[in-house]
## 1
Amino acid sequence: QQQQQQDEADGDGKKTFREGKIAAYEDRLRLMSSPDKVFRYFATVRIDGVVYMRPEDFVRAVVGHELQPKGLGLDLYEDVKACPEKSDPKFGGTFEHDKTGKLVNSECGYITYPDFLFLLTVLSSARRQFELAFKMFDEDGNGYVDLQEFLMIQRAVQKTAVGARQASTAPLEHSVLLKRFFGKDGKKTLDFKHFAKFADELQRNILHLEFLAHNSDMADRNVISPYGLTKLLLKKARISPTNRQEYLARVQAKFPEGEVAKQNLISFEETATFFQFLRATEDFSTALHIFHAAGVGIEQKDFERAAKAVGFPMPERIVQLIFTIFDSNGDGQLDESEFLKIMKDARSPNYKPASLSVKRGINAIVDGVRQKMDNKMQS
């Protein structure tokens, strides 16, 4: 039983011994290596000497539900020719997928190393953080940024990633991200409305792929069991498989396998709302302190009021699940410091290197704004 739980906590009990070892190595790589090394390991193609990720490679890097293809790995790539000029994939559709999680629109959707870093920052950030950056870059108040301003943001984010060896030498026509934002010739401008739509699409698609990776035992792939959502949450929080067992045991006792009532199943829409709530953790913490004294355990009624106050009312079954996971002594209260720490970690994709935290990525954008202002004052 314990070994079965271990296999389930790792996400797949069907791997061979060798595959399990490779999966464990790739998980350590995601957790402990620099973004540069992760990019070089999971990227699979090289065009004219420049390394790129395919969309499938990016999914493997951040979701972690599939192994790297045989024969490809660290600094091992397939040399390919550039896509035909007529190919013009839309980045919003790059991570669209069918009900099994297979990407359906990924051809020629090449991702450069700066794109990779920027996408990680977007996956981990709240909309208001980028909205602030856009407003600071918007000199004339028309709500748009151009290609050069955006590249400044990318370079600033790239500088926060330690151990970087990848140079930003990819031509514009090979970056599907830049082509979506600024057109093939780089002359279009980007407003926040379109960027916010892109960020919402990216966060939703990647979360849905993570969702599908944890509900493969369900006949209805639009729902997930409390146990499956707990595994997803703990994995995204980067809690080790060994340390997950205490949390999983409480959930399994509350919602035994094979006895999950239909009313306890959680839809993807509810899951998506929950992870949007996680990106508002700071606001939730502030609201929480209005309803209860600092250092005192969080009661369910205070949790529900604070979540509603920040715009994310939680269904009762999700609140009940959260309290089942984190109420370690069964007194009906959550330990605030432990809960908020795990929630902050879990709002990111499964892969979020320590050297590229949300705070550092956003600070890099602020530094880019300052550099822009300094350049303007010196000119």
## 2
Amino acid sequence: ELPDACSPHRMAGLLLSSRAQLCVRHLSSASTRLLSAVSGRSNSSSESSAAPHPVHVDFRFIRENQAAVQANAAARAAKVDVAAAVNTYNDYCAVVRERCDLQALRNQLSKKIAQIKSQEEKAAAVEQVRQAKQRIQQLEAEENTLTLQLFQYSQKIPNTTHSAVPVGGPDCNRVVKLVGLKREFDFPVQNHVDLGKTLDIIDFQAAAETSGESFYYLKGAAALLELALTQYAMAKALAKGYTPVLTPDIVRTRVLEGCGFAPRNDLASQTFYLSSAHSDGCGPRCLSGTAEIPLAGLYMDQLLDEQSLPIRMVGVGRAFRVETGSGSRS
């Protein structure tokens, strides 16, 4: 739909998946091709580091299936105007098409100017080139604005739900399969909260005073149990050829967004954002909700040699996530 002369780097943000681009747990040959298409970014400045990563949304598919996409969004309680997104995409395509045509015209005229003997014709050609350059600059500004708008729409449009998934709340859930039998106990059963208090290995009250609701101290056997489980999981992954990685807890928000962790509304956000006073010129930053995000950053914006693939890593990191429920956020 767009001219062949258009730079693939400009279109990568609309057609390629940054999750594939940033996937580090098991990068395939296909991922290498995706990385090649989006590797034209510079990450040498704070401005570029704060810019949004491309997000996988096929806007052509959305335009051709507008009603279904809007219905899917409604079923998933995502507030997004799909028609407006399609209009923005149409405007984007028109701008890119005009820019590409003008760039082709400018290049053609630039080559012919040296061969024109008539001063009058040469002056006319030079003026055409000047006007084309001026218009191209205007179109590039429009293109950047529309690209940002499409990026914002891409954060709001949810993935297509599988047809087998029931629509509705928890009451609509279906039991697909039962494995094993529910264990019966011959004594009163305690949950983990009661057990933790009884054995004095989990302290919720002190953590609530120290950090807030939903936090806890693990003490004694509980602390040793968490360390043992972490070591067990790492050993299993190491045996499968994965490289263990301890990841940073703070990441740039563009890495978070590039991995697809973007809320469709403020209430759905599970991210702890850092104050701009602590950005240190690095752009917006937040606490990582999973080790997957900083793992992605290890190979972000890089070209990978196919011979080095697959790259297998297992990360250990804290999971900083805002908990929602019962009308409260903590």
## 3
Amino acid sequence: MPSAEETLEAAEKAIPAEVRMISGCQDSQTSADVSNVASFSLPDPAGRAGGACTSALLKVLYADHHRTEEDLSFQETLLKMREILSSGRYTQIPQLTSSRPMNIQESFDLVPPDCSGERRALLIGINYIGQQGELSGCHNDVMNIKEYIIDVHGFPEENITILLDDGEHRDPTRENILDAYKALVSASKAGDACFCHYSGHGGKLRDDDGDEADGYDETLVPLDYQRAGQIRDDDIFNTLIGPMPKGVTLTCLMDCCHSGTVLELPYVFKADGTDIRSKTMMMNQGFNSSKFFFGDTFNQLIGESRNGFSTPPRRSSNGRKVASSPSTPTTNSSACDDDLGDDAVTMVSI
């Protein structure tokens, strides 16, 4: 088991940016679709439905179209979200994960005080219109979050990219989502603050490279998942998290099922009320540090060998690993069970 110092050193090398994620629930939990966001007293510019996580967050931070007067910490924000969810009889536990051990009692903000660069956002909402498992709140989530980040955090509208399956915006297909992540990384530089929001289905696939303690990859479910496949947590890490430049602050809000470790981050605070006095985050006990090294062992990086990372495994459009060139280190992938194909999806409420 690596020490805290070794894990931090590895995290700083594998994830140069400051990344933090607020998720609606733990990996083992499902999220929920709120049929009437008025029960949370939310601004609702586009209808009467929203995701429970997004709705609770906005109730805490942006009720009635106004920033709350109270200056809340990250810890207080998540605990208040949990109170709201509990009052609505939702059992999900919001959690904060990050690439660095944060002081969770510092003031909640999407833009750090020393931000000197641009503010960019990518907002994705998928209602799966006409498909089995159709949702009703994800477009509303995006519109509510868009208003919030413009009004409260000063994100310019021209720097906000939106993917929606509404016939008006670019479709949130697998290719378009990954391309949007790549574009955000390409445009970002030190001093920038970025924000990503996803509202849609989340799922789990049988782990195909042995890096998951529970045997499953967490996934995002794009609009065309039946044809193109899901987006595995490994894909997100290799496309967005790992490549994001040093000096960028990236905050993500993931309102979907099984979202606890979908960004592969090593530090966690769970708003379950077990230690409300804590000022720092804990090591994520379910986190496998070998993820940082794309198949290399921990000691290969922090020990005597410091020759960099191996090339991450390539994937085809449906998320399956494809053969690497002879010079590229490979990671064995496990075959799927007969009852859980490679494109199987947990299709439950967001």
